[in-house]
């Protein structure tokens, strides 16, 4: 496969059975092959996206001392600010050339669950940043819910199979700033090759060059979205659960050519996580003689913990 297929979520929610099935088939096939789609028909409108980008730029433009106030020790970077160079891809010692922010789940109907998560961090200087982050979180969570419903049907599960696992799940909205590059980076890139940890990732801001995805011939292909599209890819949790029927594809963000070193990149992934006790054990329906069980049983919480340590975010 040489390019990322494009799908439209409106087909799935149209109420027309043929269009719904078309969406399920297209996204299922894309995820078996390349693990990525570009998706139109999501729930983010232009006004929300405009204010999101404005606020995200406002935040990263704050002086470093102001940003550092929001970098909180002891929570593995799960909320608030993570400064430049802190995170490195699994197995890589150089830090990625990025700084980022984390918005986490807003729990208002389950006090026990609320206790499990660190509190969201409010940026005092930018009240709009906090509210637009919350609104975007809700809209991406809604988009992801329908995508997972389509995947459940593709996997011959109940349509709502994932619903209870993602309600109040440990999802993260991560605005990322890749700053201008001032001098030849030694071995560091904006984001080194990696697979995402979570169930699925919904990515805003893949409209410019930079993001590349590895196809099954090990070739890097550019993943560039249209202005009205989100990139949505399978993460390692969903790959494990489906015995790698759905592929968590390795991707990276390359440094721009020298003439563009002076420009920032802003991208905003939403990492859709389930609640920590969801079992990621391989689904029976994904095991047969040709596809023996490839992964040990593990819960989402245990798996996340392992990976945060590998990323250098948790001790
Ligand atoms: O910045 C991008 O376009 C992609 C970032 C990414 O892959 C990630 O944060 O997991
Ligand atoms: Fe990623």
Automatic annotation (TrEMBL):
Residues 168-274 form the Fe2OG dioxygenase domain. Keywords: Iron, Metal-binding, Oxidoreductase. The keyword Oxidoreductase applies. The keyword ATP-binding does not apply. InterPro entries: DIOX_N, IPNS-like_FE2OG_OXY, IPNS-like_sf, Oxoglu/Fe-dep_dioxygenase_dom. Belongs to the iron/ascorbate-dependent oxidoreductase family. PANTHER family: FI07970P-RELATED, OXIDOREDUCTASE, 2OG-FE II OXYGENASE FAMILY PROTEIN. This is 2-oxoglutarate and iron-dependent oxygenase domain-containing protein. It comes from Psychroserpens ponticola.
